Every structure is written in structure tokens, then in C-alpha cells.
Batch of 2 targets.
Target 1
Amino acid sequence: MSVSTVSKALNDNPSISTLTKERVVKLANEWNYIPNEAARHFKQSKSFTLGLVIPDLLDQFYVLAINGVEAVAGDNKYQVIVAQSHEDTEKEAQIIQNLISNRVDGVIIAISKNTKTTALFQRLEQTGIPVVFLSRSLNDPGFDSVVTDNKHAAELAIDYLIKKQHRRIAHLMGPKALGTSHLRHEAYRMALEKRGISYDPSLVKEIDFSVTQTDEVMEALFALPDPPTALFTFKSYVSLDALRFIKENYPQKLQQVAIVGFGNLPLIQYLDHKPSASIDENSFDMGIAAATLLLKHIENESDQPLPASTLHIPCKLIVHHS
Amino acid sequence: MSVSTVSKALNDNPSISTLTKERVVKLANEWNYIPNEAARHFKQSKSFTLGLVIPDLLDQFYVLAINGVEAVAGDNKYQVIVAQSHEDTEKEAQIIQNLISNRVDGVIIAISKNTKTTALFQRLEQTGIPVVFLSRSLNDPGFDSVVTDNKHAAELAIDYLIKKQHRRIAHLMGPKALGTSHLRHEAYRMALEKRGISYDPSLVKEIDFSVTQTDEVMEALFALPDPPTALFTFKSYVSLDALRFIKENYPQKLQQVAIVGFGNLPLIQYLDHKPSASIDENSFDMGIAAATLLLKHIENESDQPLPASTLHIPCKLIVHHS
DNA sequence: TTGTAGGCGTTATCAA
DNA sequence: TTGATAACGCCTACAA
């Protein structure tokens, strides 16, 4: 029996008789034959693989997003390769190079905090590999992205804090290199002004996610003549660092200073002193949205590429009760 | 110019003139040519890929192990595909099937808590794909594994608790299906008896990692006529659940009950009420050891397979200061 | 020093 | 209904 007959039989090709199919399947099982997916993909010049690049697997926000991506990918017979950049632009470039080498069908990426250039991503698109930015987007509107609805998030947070009588609300802003940092900063500013609180630049401090810098910034904020009574942070891991700083250095302020940040992390449930509230970014849903959008590009057969779009995923405020 | 000349030029084959090489490399760069790794692997019938199967990415223990595996893999030009079983044997089987389909060169796996049969793993080995079990091993000595030195861990924990005047030390034992659960249980028993504390089976309770079951078990333990004053847990996530149970239901016991478990998780640093201590399993090193062992098998050219071995990774006790 | 040809496992096309 | 063949992109003998 020829290879082609076997191939057709296993793929349930209608041109093969039922009897032959049965015999083939039986033998295939007996001999534990498993088709070589790699060869198949090679032949089809399609890998049925999505590359997913994230800064760090220890960040639960991304893990939840991964789960969302994997769910959609699995439903559509795609695999997912997860790679960590460890917030290193160089490593990130290496990963992307590698993903191109392996001819993944598409890439979802949460860029590292230092990534500024778009060259690599243009290269991907040129190679015919669509890219979707997750959570952290470039400033370039030419790319697809799935992001938190930062504006709404800031309003939820500021509303909550104002209701709790806070007027001096500081913002621990993300690294300037990230477009998301500016979006959140702007959203914070708008939300404040809309509610009649004038924006005070001395209450805005850039952080780089390191403990030491957060400590410095907190020290500076508390040294102000009129220090903040509330913090709005770029992400909840910063909230946690800030909280620890307060516990260690200003324990008397622990009950007074309210903290709200982006990301409702599962680990918060274990804490005794929780941040006051968190923005639940629905990162699982963000993963789903990113993967769905990416697949739409991948499976777009027309000669025209789909126009780039930015999806704002709705979020909600979760108040933590300590 | 022929493809073979180009291929040789790019691979720096000595039979190609320097001039030709230069011209080829120049054009390759100009045209953004990136070799198709998939085709290369296909040709070599080698994927330079390791499969890494773990229960859950939200468990920081495994994330650290992943980092270890990735470090070794990267140094040896191998890629890593990470897949989550979500503690589901069926999903796990699917993943392994998929890894075989994709002809990975080797597999590292932390089996799900329900996995009992070895059939799948034998299938892998038969297919010529070596397997290394990580942390959670089967009872079968025919397979390679990298595990915590459970015996030493139990001694460290029990010594610590005894020094703190505890005599009634309960064990929250892992799921019976896991070989590791029995090893740790046995290590606990031995450590106790060696120190003149008789083993009391009423102080041993099996848990399945669910919050509800941990709650039930804790309730039962505290309802004993002579309840435990210390807990030795299968893993630190169980320690955290137990801690929460105590805070919510027996707050007066919070300061008295000592808890020690396997796994020194990064998230513990954020807690106010920490477990008393944790076994630092050095999971990063476990990942390194597993990957190194696996690569040794993969790169074993001899016709004889290497004998199976079990590596016990040294661990230490980390005392947490609340 | 360069080119030609064969093959890795699979599928699609076309012929038998 | 089945079989032979070419092709996917790359590498490697071997021939020129």
C-alpha cells in the first residue's frame, strides 16, 4: 500500500474505501504511529503556532493573559510558545528573531519596559507575521493592540478615592518608555481635573518597578510639605512595594494612606494588609481578545491586510477588605 | 548562484571563497533573509525543542523551575515549549501526544496530582523521547527524576519545630496519587520517630490543594482532644490556606501555631503573617538539573540508553520573620 | 570553488 | 479507489 493511500486514509479522504481506512487505522494504532506534525506544517508552510512574548512569568497578570490566549489558540488548533523577555530589550529582540526563524503564524507581545523602537515589529509584519500588542502598547497606531480601558480605570480609581475623602492623590507612573505609562498618567490627570482637583506635578513620580526606586519615590512623596494621602499606581506590584515601604517606614500612616493600582492579582487574597482596591483588568479576557484578533489577521485570506485596531477591554474596581 | 552555494556561504563552509561569502551575507541582510529553522530541523529530524509540562503557571515554584530549564536550554541552543496540565490527567495526555506529534527531543514533566499510569511515559521513551520527572515523581524507578531531598527537608522542618517546643506536629499530606506525597509523609514520620516523638496517624490528613478541603482538614485537626500546635505541609500554598483558615476561625491561635511547608515562594515576602518557615527547594536549580540530565540523554549517541537516575536536590530551611 | 541531486515526512495533483 | 510523483526549504555528499 502506498504512502499516499495511507495519508489519505488517515485524513479520512472520501476517495478511500471504508475497508482500506479501517485497515490503515488499525495498523496505525498497533504500530503506535503518530504523524509528524512538523513535517505537516513544513509542507503547508504554516506552523499553527502563536508566539507569546511577555516580560515575566512571575507576574500573575501575564499568566492570566496567557491562559486566555491558550484557550482561544487551543480551540483553533493552534499551539502557543511562551517566551519571557525579563524586561530586557535585547533578549526580546532575540526572541522575536527566533519566532521568525521558526515561522510562527503570529505574535502577541507585552513589550519590555525599555522597548522604544518599532523596527522589529515592522520586520515581523513585513515577513507576513501579524503582531498584536498586549496591555503595553507602542505609541504607533499602525499596530493592533489590546489594552485596558485606562481612562475608565482612572475614573473608577479616582472616584473611589475621592469618595473616601482623599484629595491629595499621587500617581506612581510607569516607565516613560512605555506608551501605557503616559496613557495612564493622562487618564489620572483628566479624571482629577474633571472632578475639580487641580493636577499637581509634584505628586507624580516615575518608577521602574524596582523596589529601591519605589522606596526613593515614596520617601520623596512623604517628605512633601503637603504629602499625599492616597496613591494611584501603575500596577499592583508597585502597590505592594509601596505598602511595604509604609509598613516599614511610616507605620502610623498605614491606616490612612489608600492605595489603588492596576491589576487584581490572585496573590492579593493572601495578604493581611491589602491595597485598598485594584483595577481588575480582566487579563484573561485580554488574552482571549488578543488571540482572537491575531487569528483574525492570520486567517484573513484576502489580499488586503485588515486595518489595525485598538481594543479597550472594560475593567472594574475591586475593593479589598483587609 | 545555486542554493547550495548560498547555504554553504551562510554556514561559513570553508569550501566557499571569502568573496562569495561576503556577497551572500550582504544580500541576505539586504533582503532580510532569515533561514527557516523548521525546515532545518525537519531535515535533521531533530527539533531542538524540549517540552516542559507543569500543572500551573500561577504556582511560583514551577515558574522558577521553568527559568532554570530555559537557562540550560538556551545555552545549548534548545527551545522550550511550556504547557500547563491544570492538574488534569486528560489534558496532560493530550499535551504529551502533542509533544510527540511535534517531535520534541525530550520532555520534562511535573505530573498532575491525579496521574497514576506510566503508559504515556513509556510511550514517550519508546518513541525515543527521553523523559525527566520534575519534583513530582512516579513510583517507577525506571524513569529519571529530579526531586527535592525530601528526607533532609523533613528533618530540617521537624528540627526547627521541635526547637520551638512543638511536639504535636501535624502533616498536611499531598494527594495519595502522587509518589511525592508518600515520600514526604514517610520522611515526616521518620524524622519524628528519630527524635523520639511517636507517630500519630490522627495528625496526618490528606489534602487535594483545594481551599475547601484544607479548611475541612484544619477544622478536624483543631477539633482533636489534643490538637496540633504545628503544621508540616506538602507545599507552601497549603501553608497559606491553612494560615488563612486560622486567621478566620481561630485567630487566638495565630501566634501559637507554627507552619512549615515545601517551597519558598517569592510571594511570601509580601505577607504580614508569614508561615513560620519554608523549605527552599531551590526550584531554579531543580530546573537546571532536570534540563541538564535531559540533555545528557538526548545527546547520548551510544546505542545503550543511559541508566535512569534520581537526583536529590539539596534544600534549606528559610525562617520567615513576620 | 561551485553546482547538482537526493532526501527528511507529508499532502496535493494527476494518472492508472 | 489506489498509486506515483512533485513539492515544501534546507543540508550534504559527490560531481564538475
Note: Chain B touches chain A at residues 32, 34-39, 41-42, 47, 57-58, 60, 63-64, 66-67, 70, 79, 81-82, 84, 97-98, 100-103, 123, 126-127, 240, 244, 247, 266-267, 270-273 (CB under 8 Å).
Target 2
Amino acid sequence: MDLEKLILEPKYSSETIGDYSYRMLRRNIICIILKPGDSVSENTVAAALGSSRTPIRETFSKLAADGLIDVHPQRGTYISLIDMKRVKESVFMRATLEEAVMRVACAGISEDQIFRLEANFNQQSFCFNKGKMQEVFELDNKMHELLFEACGMEHVWQAILSIAADSYRIRYLKLSAGVRGEETIAEHLEIIRAIREQDVERGCRLMRDHVAKLDEDVEVLHRQHADYFKNWER
Amino acid sequence: MDLEKLILEPKYSSETIGDYSYRMLRRNIICIILKPGDSVSENTVAAALGSSRTPIRETFSKLAADGLIDVHPQRGTYISLIDMKRVKESVFMRATLEEAVMRVACAGISEDQIFRLEANFNQQSFCFNKGKMQEVFELDNKMHELLFEACGMEHVWQAILSIAADSYRIRYLKLSAGVRGEETIAEHLEIIRAIREQDVERGCRLMRDHVAKLDEDVEVLHRQHADYFKNWER
DNA sequence: ATCGTCGTGCTAGTATACAAGTATGAATAT
DNA sequence: ATATTCATACTTGTATACTAGCACGACGAT
């Protein structure tokens, strides 16, 4: 185990150690700093973050619920492999729900909500041109969250997140590999335009296709890092 | 706080105290033994279950994620009010996803899967006639889980569960009040029949209506227990 | 050389003690 | 009678110590 390379942002003074360690660990797992199969232990993480085991245990419990770690009592804990079965289900779920939400959004959301989406897109475009892919990644996620929020579906987005962690790892790998960066942003622009023009059918189709594209072009990832995956069978 | 009336099933020897306490607390909250607004504390629960605070803390963390308790640091923890906003989102999500899953199921699932659904229905009907509403409640939930499982969507069902706790409390209240018990079971029969006959459109419509009916006839609950709810505005 | 035994060190699960902040109510001053 | 102060008890957050079980390697018997 090798936690020196952990990316550690500063801790907000208001947040508890438990919240902080969850934020950091989740981020490091999704960004493949902690690699699938790597071993972690409550003790070493606690030491790396300069805390005791108690708040780390809470964090492990949440990460296990996310499917990001596998806890084997009395044996050890490991960063989970990316489960393609889970990814497939996550894509099905997102495609279904985001289409339904697009139907609501295209029926009409407030001008302010549209502005927020456009402002987010503006930042995405800017960061992409500057090569700040980490920021693009987070803005992408945030844009979808904004859409659910605009439709009063915050909790539905939370539910999606609860099984989307593996999809995030794939999305991050693809972004790192330079796969489908520009196209993705272009699709975002089209989606926002459909919302503005209240073009329901086009918007739904765009969103359905957009989400489904997550598991396109993943073969190249599998070739490079076959040991990151499980339940691959395509 | 008044934990004498907690229903405590025996603990499986294999499960940890953390898992056991989560199972018991969740059950007692959903069955309104612990009432919305009631105060609970890590200490008193630990004492009631004869354990220390550590595993109870994990349980509290999970219950908070489910939206079943509200933790106020240094002040106290309370059984959360039933959030009608969350219920509304949960119904939207279930209606959308269960329809999509029905589309898969009606396209053809194995004979064995259909048998399991029918066996479950048979038990539902039996228990209902015997007045065993607690069992009916659990078989109802199980039936929907079986359907997702038959379509290879176990994780999607898990995601639904992650925001469905409040809906469960409502469903339980309705069942206790004798609201729409028989109709619900009749609908289950129709749904299974549609699957067997591979009648996609009828199956989807039945399921959509079935799920949406959760927030029908809830006014009577609100009249009886207005203090159980928040974000009521209908 | 191979197999089995046992000890050592690691793991996660649990118990307990302490820290820091909040609500409450009694005591006191006005 | 009312307002203020302050001690106290209770809350969750954190740290630490202990328990039980597994992996692994050294060592010895065969």
C-alpha cells in the first residue's frame, strides 16, 4: 500500500474529519490515484490523514455502500474492481431517468435555471480549451446535477449517484485517455439548446444517446488496464 | 425517549452488531414504532441493544443517508418527518424505472423467474387472507425486487431503495389503516399476468399506475397524523 | 523435499474514555 | 416578577485500547 501520492485538498474548518476523509478518498478512488485492486486499511489511511480510525471507519462504510471498496473482515480492504455489470445498470438507469427529466425540462424551466446551465457550459468549454480536464470532469457532473435540480429532482440525482461511482471511474479514464472529450462537450451544447427551444423529442433523443455513449469506446481502456475491470463480457 | 417498545428480532450469529442494529432500527422506523419527531441518541440505542456506541454510530450514519434520521451535532438526533417532496421524487423515479423494467420483463424472462413471482403472489394472497399485514408488506417489497432481479437490475433496485424509505413509511401507514390493501394485491396479479402474456403496453401501463397509486388516499393519513409529515403542500 | 504445526503480525469489529459544544434550569441580581 | 448568569447534564465527534480471526512464514517432523 502506497498512500504518499494521495491528493489531499485542504480540509474545510467546518467539516468533520469523517466528511473530509470521505471526500478525499472518494476523489482519489474515482481519479484512479488509488487503483482498482489496491489494498487500503483503516490504520494506514488514518495515519495518512493524521486522524484516528473512528472517522475513517465511517468513511469506509460509505465507500463500501458506493461499491468503491470491498471490505473483507479480519482480512483486508481493497479498492474494488470496476464492475461492468454495475456500469451497465447505471447507464440503463441514467438513460431512463435523464430522458424522463429532459421531458420535464423541455416542458419549461425558469430562465434562471437555463442561465445556470449555460454558465456551466461556458466554463466547461473554457476549461477544456485550457486542457484542465479535471475541472471539465467535475463541471460535466455538475451540469447533470443542475438539470435534475432545475426539475426539482435532487433526490433522484442522489439515487443515481449511489450506483454511479464505477461509471465515474470509467468517465475519468476516458477523459484521461483523450477519448471523446470534444464530442461530449458538443453534445452538452445541443442538449441545452433543445431545452431552450423546448424541443422535447429532440432533447430526449439527445440525452438518451449522450448517456448511452458512456460505454462506447471502452475497449481501449480494457486493453490498457484489463486488471481494473470485472464482469467484462461484452 | 422511550425504547422499551422496540421490536427486536433475534440477531443472526453471523451478522455484526452494526448490521443487526441497522436492520432493527430501520424496521422500527419504517413501521412507525419509532415515530417521526421522536428523539433517539447513540447512547440510549446502544443501551437498549446492549452494545457500545461504535456500531450504533455506523448505523446512524446509514440511517441518515436513508433520510430516516436527522443528526444535529452536539444537539441530538431525531426520527425524520416523512418528507413529501422526497416521496414525490421517489414515486417519479419508481414509476419511470419500473415501467422501463416491465418493458424488459414483458420482452421475455425465464419460466423460473415467472414462477418465483407467482410463488410470491401466492404467499401475498395467503397472508392477506390471514390478516398478516406485516408479511404482506414485506412480500410486496420483495415482489418488486424479484422483478428487477429477473431483469438483471439488482443495483437499480438498490438505488431506488436509497431514496424510498419515506415511501415505505407511507405504504406501511396505509396498510395499517386498511387503505387499498385488496386492490394492491389485485394489481400485482394483473401485472404478473401481463408479464406471462408478454403484453408490453398493458404491463407498462399497469405498473405505471400501480406505483403512482402510492400517493393516492394519503389525505386520511395526513388528517390522522399531520405531525408526521413535512413539505406536505399538495 | 514435503507436509503440518504454531507463532507472529496484520486485519476489521467492538468497547470505552475523552473533547467540544448545546440546552436546560436553578440561583441570583435587579 | 423578570432578566441574567452559570453550573450541569447530555449530545455527537474523536481517540485509544482491546478482541477475535485470518495470512503467512519459520520451523520441525516425516
Note: The radius of gyration of chain B is 19 Å.
